[in-house]
């Protein structure tokens, strides 16, 4: 059983800080997603665990052992990267056996473990092929099998699905979830910029932005009760409205809204966070009147952009029979319990 | 560049023919024609004969051919080893170190080969390392001259090699030496064979440095061609030149036939 611990890890390239004192613990057997836009430092964090970047400060621990000064090949990790990096001059089975041979596993054991890893990823019938003869999804499976064959305590996945098309991606997500159920002892650090992947797969999500950890919690916590504006907008693309806290709720551009104000003191400035799919069209509680700025048809839903007093509010509605025209006056509403009040000032930690 | 119009294509081909034929093909054809003749006083050679070849492939000429082949083979293998080793080491250096190494390996190309020959001659004419008068001094000079090309082509190939392969191998627990033997060198193999071919061809044709150094019992083919034509034996010299050309081409063809699994990438 081995988890990962980041102990105030900082990484800088040529004086440019790309990871700023990250403190994070991945429990043994846990799936931790590092979620953030590009340039947020999430891949750097993963590479610090793999040993491809040397932190300028802090320690990285794997299974309680300080590996900060160890070269990559002594760390006992499995890694899968976006472009797979299968060895093109080796057959699938040789690729999968590579780690075992490199670590001088007993010769008699290797074929069995290769077969096991290929079986687990459903690639057993492709053992004799070369990587160039496989599709992207198949190459990805082989890359996972190759990483699993050495039975690592820690599996690092760096944007493993971003080179696949949408349909394959959801299939592979299910596969990864199944693999994790079959290997409950393996800690997984999963780097992604895709919130769906993170929400689907992770036990906990660490949200990163501009070299820093912004938020960390279970997917439900982050989605239902985000603590920062960045989390709210990056995970689930929430509407963020500037409000002033009032007695019965909040005041947005002069209109009173009924929301749970939690511990916020009346008069304080705050941000109201409402998910687009929790907004309804027509009269109701917390009505917002505005004009249609844009309509997008997305198959099963319509996304409306509505200008409310100069603020653009997004609303995702089940496919509408009558599509509103640009400039139409509409009323939106949301239930008080569907909104979250974020205290201003925690937005940019 | 794609040329779409028919006249454009035609013009491009004629331009190519106009430049290629006189510059590249014609001189070689002239040598081939001369090698089959005994006189050349008019516009065309006369007195067709195969006699020039009879002497070009036996006796001293044959010995010179073997000398050239051995020299080129040993020199290009040495150069490939040293050049690749240096290129691999340079890839691991920081920017400034790599630049220094690049410049160092450029030297034999930048310096005229006559100077390289003279330098090698002066350096190894006195003990403790007395190589003057031996075959080793010729091989050494050739190695120095062609290592630059091996270094450059292998360097370029390493630059194109995706570091993800090396990192994937390391993450799987492979020590650096294991990664080098099982991943990097196999992936570089196509470039290594190409570099070897280039070194071989350059060494086969080397004249100026060799002239300064060769001992009487180790005369490579280009020197023999030079001395033959210098004496006025233009036609037998041409025959030897054609033999040199053919041998080099044959070896290059054989090297390019070495297919590696990495070639299929």
Task: Give a quick rundown of the structure.
With 349 residues, chain A is an alpha+beta fold.
Give structural notes.
The complex is a heterodimer of chains A (349) and B (265). With 349 residues, chain A is an alpha+beta fold. Chain A has two domains: 4-228, Rossmann fold (3-Layer(aba) Sandwich); 237-343, Nucleic acid-binding proteins (OB fold (Dihydrolipoamide Acetyltransferase, E2P)), CATH 2.40.50.140. Chain A has eight helices and 20 strands. Chain A has helices spanning 42-50, 92-102, 110-120, 136-149, 166-182, 195-201, 219-224, 229-234, and strands at residues 4-13, 16-26, 31-35, 57-62, 65-66, 77-80, 154-158, 187-192, 204-209, 212-217, 239-245, 250-252, 255-257, 269-274, 279-281, 288-297, 301-308, 311-318, 329-334, 339-343. Chain A has a six-stranded mixed sheet with strand order 6-7-8-3-9-10, sandwiched between helices. Chain A has a five-stranded antiparallel sheet with strand order 13-12-11-14-20. In chain A, strands 15-19-16-17-18 form a five-stranded antiparallel sheet, with no helix packed on it. Chain A is elongated. The model of chain A has no long low-confidence stretch (mean pLDDT 89). With 265 residues, chain B is an all-alpha fold. Chain B has two domains: 7-37, no CATH class; 52-264, MetI-like fold, CATH 1.10.3720. Chain B is built from eleven helices and no strands. Chain B has helices at residues 6-35, 51-56, 59-91, 95-110, 113-123, 135-160, 163-171, 176-205, 208-213, 221-230, 234-257. In chain B, helix 1 (6-35) packs across helix 11 (234-257), helix 3 (59-91) runs antiparallel to helix 8 (176-205) and helix 7 (163-171) runs antiparallel to helix 8. The interface between A and B is medium-sized, with 29 and 23 residues.
